[in-house]
Protein backbone atom coordinates (compact mmCIF):
# COMPACT_ATOMS: atom_id res chain seq x y z
CA UNK A 1 0.00 0.00 0.00
CA UNK A 2 2.76 2.45 0.95
CA UNK A 3 4.54 1.58 -2.31
CA UNK A 4 1.46 2.60 -4.27
CA UNK A 5 1.22 5.95 -2.49
CA UNK A 6 4.91 6.66 -3.00
CA UNK A 7 4.51 5.87 -6.71
CA UNK A 8 1.59 8.25 -7.05
CA UNK A 9 3.56 10.95 -5.24
CA UNK A 10 6.51 10.53 -7.59
CA UNK A 11 4.33 10.74 -10.70
CA UNK A 12 2.53 13.84 -9.45
CA UNK A 13 5.72 15.56 -8.38
CA UNK A 14 7.45 14.89 -11.72
CA UNK A 15 4.48 16.17 -13.72
CA UNK A 16 4.23 19.30 -11.63
CA UNK A 17 7.98 19.88 -11.71
CA UNK A 18 7.95 19.90 -15.51
CA UNK A 19 5.09 22.40 -15.60
CA UNK A 20 6.74 24.61 -12.97
CA UNK A 21 9.90 25.05 -15.01
CA UNK A 22 7.97 26.75 -17.80
CA UNK A 23 6.37 29.55 -15.71
CA UNK A 24 8.83 30.53 -13.01
CA UNK A 25 8.16 34.24 -13.17
CA UNK A 26 4.39 33.99 -12.65
CA UNK A 27 4.60 34.48 -8.86
CA UNK A 28 6.19 37.13 -6.66
CA UNK A 29 8.08 36.55 -3.43
CA UNK A 30 5.27 38.28 -1.53
CA UNK A 31 2.60 36.06 -3.10
CA UNK A 32 4.64 32.92 -2.51
CA UNK A 33 5.13 33.74 1.16
CA UNK A 34 1.50 34.74 1.71
CA UNK A 35 0.09 31.62 0.04
CA UNK A 36 2.54 29.31 1.79
CA UNK A 37 1.68 30.70 5.22
CA UNK A 38 -2.07 30.39 4.52
CA UNK A 39 -1.92 26.90 3.04
CA UNK A 40 0.42 25.36 5.60
CA UNK A 41 -2.11 26.24 8.33
CA UNK A 42 -4.90 24.48 6.42
CA UNK A 43 -2.71 21.46 5.64
CA UNK A 44 -1.56 21.13 9.25
CA UNK A 45 -5.05 20.71 10.68
CA UNK A 46 -5.76 17.23 12.09
CA UNK A 47 -7.63 14.75 9.90
CA UNK A 48 -7.22 17.02 6.88
CA UNK A 49 -10.02 19.24 8.24
CA UNK A 50 -8.49 22.35 6.68
CA UNK A 51 -8.57 20.93 3.16
CA UNK A 52 -11.69 18.75 3.12
CA UNK A 53 -13.49 21.22 0.87
CA UNK A 54 -10.44 21.95 -1.32
CA UNK A 55 -10.69 20.08 -4.61
CA UNK A 56 -7.81 17.82 -5.69
CA UNK A 57 -7.17 20.04 -8.71
CA UNK A 58 -6.80 23.06 -6.44
CA UNK A 59 -4.37 21.16 -4.22
CA UNK A 60 -2.28 20.33 -7.28
CA UNK A 61 -2.35 24.02 -8.21
CA UNK A 62 -0.91 24.73 -4.76
CA UNK A 63 1.81 22.19 -5.45
CA UNK A 64 2.57 23.83 -8.78
CA UNK A 65 2.79 27.28 -7.23
CA UNK A 66 5.00 26.09 -4.39
CA UNK A 67 7.30 24.37 -6.91
CA UNK A 68 7.67 27.66 -8.78
CA UNK A 69 8.15 29.51 -5.50
CA UNK A 70 11.21 27.41 -4.64
CA UNK A 71 12.91 29.17 -7.56
CA UNK A 72 11.35 32.59 -6.99
CA UNK A 73 12.25 32.64 -3.27
CA UNK A 74 14.98 30.05 -2.62
CA UNK A 75 15.50 31.28 0.96
CA UNK A 76 12.16 29.68 1.87
CA UNK A 77 12.56 26.58 -0.29
CA UNK A 78 12.01 24.14 2.58
CA UNK A 79 8.75 25.82 3.58
CA UNK A 80 7.48 25.60 0.01
CA UNK A 81 8.59 21.99 -0.32
CA UNK A 82 6.75 21.12 2.90
CA UNK A 83 3.50 22.46 1.44
CA UNK A 84 4.17 20.57 -1.81
CA UNK A 85 4.75 17.27 -0.02
CA UNK A 86 1.73 17.55 2.26
CA UNK A 87 -0.63 18.62 -0.53
CA UNK A 88 0.53 15.76 -2.77
CA UNK A 89 0.06 13.35 0.14
CA UNK A 90 -3.52 14.58 0.60
CA UNK A 91 -4.26 13.98 -3.09
CA UNK A 92 -2.60 10.55 -2.92
CA UNK A 93 -4.73 9.68 0.12
CA UNK A 94 -7.84 10.63 -1.82
CA UNK A 95 -6.74 8.54 -4.81
CA UNK A 96 -6.04 5.62 -2.52
CA UNK A 97 -9.48 5.98 -0.93
CA UNK A 98 -11.03 6.05 -4.41
CA UNK A 99 -9.20 2.88 -5.43
CA UNK A 100 -10.39 1.08 -2.29
CA UNK A 101 -13.92 2.47 -2.42
CA UNK A 102 -14.34 1.17 -5.97
CA UNK A 103 -12.68 -2.19 -5.32
CA UNK A 104 -9.81 -1.50 -7.71
CA UNK A 105 -6.88 -2.46 -5.49
CA UNK A 106 -6.35 -5.90 -6.97
CA UNK A 107 -6.79 -4.62 -10.51
CA UNK A 108 -4.24 -1.87 -9.84
CA UNK A 109 -1.62 -4.33 -8.61
CA UNK A 110 -2.35 -6.83 -11.40
CA UNK A 111 -1.85 -4.15 -14.03
CA UNK A 112 1.31 -2.98 -12.32
CA UNK A 113 2.69 -6.52 -12.38
CA UNK A 114 1.73 -6.74 -16.06
CA UNK A 115 3.83 -3.66 -16.75
CA UNK A 116 0.99 -1.19 -17.31
CA UNK A 117 2.41 1.90 -15.68
How would you describe what is shown here?
There is one protein chain. With 117 residues, the chain is mostly helical. The chain has one domain. 74% of the residues lie in helices and 0% in strands. The chain has five helices and no strands. The longest helix has 25 residues. It is elongated and about 45 Å long. The model has no long low-confidence stretch (mean pLDDT 87).
Task: Tell me the layout of helices and strands.
Elements (H helix, E strand, L loop, with lengths): L1 H20 L7 H16 L11 H17 L4 H25 L3 H9 L4
Helix pairs in contact: 1-3, 1-4, 2-3, 2-4, 3-4
Major β-sheet annotation: none
Based on CA atoms alone, the radius of gyration comes out at 15 Å
**Strand percentage, roughly?**
under 5%
Measure the end-to-end span.
Answer: 16 Å
Q: Mean pLDDT, nearest integer?
A: 87
- What overall form do the CA principal axes indicate? elongated
Order of helices and strands: HHHHH
Specify the oligomeric state. single chain
Report the total helices. 5
Question: Which structural category fits the helices and strands?
Answer: mainly alpha
Count of domain modules: 1
Helix percent reads over 70%
Runs with pLDDT <50, length 5+? Answer: none
Instruction: Tell me how many strands there are.
Output: 0
Amino acid sequence: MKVMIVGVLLVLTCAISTKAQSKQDAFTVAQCRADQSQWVVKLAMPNQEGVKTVLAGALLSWVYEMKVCTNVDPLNMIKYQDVERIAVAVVADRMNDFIHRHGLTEEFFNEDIAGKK
